[in-house]
Amino acid sequence: MAPHAEDTNGVTRELATEVHEPGLSKDLVEAVKHDAPVKPPKFHNKYEERVYLKERLAAAFRIFGKFGFDEGVAGHITVRDPIERDTFWVNPFGVAFSLIKASDLIRVDEGGKIVDHGPVKRLNTAAFMIHSAIHKARPDVNAACHSHSIYGRSFCALGRKLDIITQDSCAFYDDHVLYENFNGIVLSEVEGQQIAQVLGKGKAALLQNHGLLTVGETVEAAVFWFVSLEKCCHAQLMADAAASGRGGETKKIGHEEAAYTYKTVGTPYAGYFSAVPLFDVIHHETKGEYRG
User: Fold this and answer.
1) 72 Rama class: left (phi>0) / alpha (psi -120 to 50) / beta
2) Whole-angstrom Cα distance, residue 90 to residue 78?
3) Is 77:60 a contact under the CB 8 Å cutoff?
4) What angle (nearest 5°) sits at the alpha carbon of residue 70, between those of residues 188 and 155?
């Protein structure tokens, strides 16, 4: 039997078979001994997996609320349903991130029809247009996040991609795009498709004059990429301002170094593992109330 551990939700998570960090030289593996990191849980029962993913999605909204990524009724996170994979779960329109429970989530099909719901049966049209296009275009994407976070939307007003100036920004090296069109609230299917097309195979998009968008194989990875990208935007805004004030510019990380670092901090597993502490903290602070 593969090594396993209990996560904060009581679900068995498989431990990684490798006991070293991604990118660590094999020559040093024997010299660096530590516990194996955890992997996402595997399920034999898809209905149990659905329950688990809904709980993780509800926890994701609590994380967004904790970080202040809410702005009125704007913002949405989705996760693909493991049973009917052409449908996805999303937050009901108008319910505060910090109050969302698993039972509140709604499930939507490719046509925008709500096929499952909790007490509030309201769908954000922009959420459907953006996320449905991404889930259709990217079978590898199981979760997507978008919100109007303060530093993300500030940086998106500059109409440029991130400079690779910190170790953390290397996670987005050659793996994020700039979507340059802004036509107001995304209420048309065509614009959702255009966003998905520009995103391509990347993990993140800077939506000009709008905000950040991140995707992942897991909801954990998508959430961590969003949190990290927001902080990278914040860091660059401050670094650019400080450098400009001194009549200079920021120091950029070289291509070779950025590509090398990406292999450690920019992989799908790195995104998942980096998010686990965020979810553990939310579980502790809420005593698991989001699972209801």
Assistant:
1) left
2) 5
3) yes
4) 75
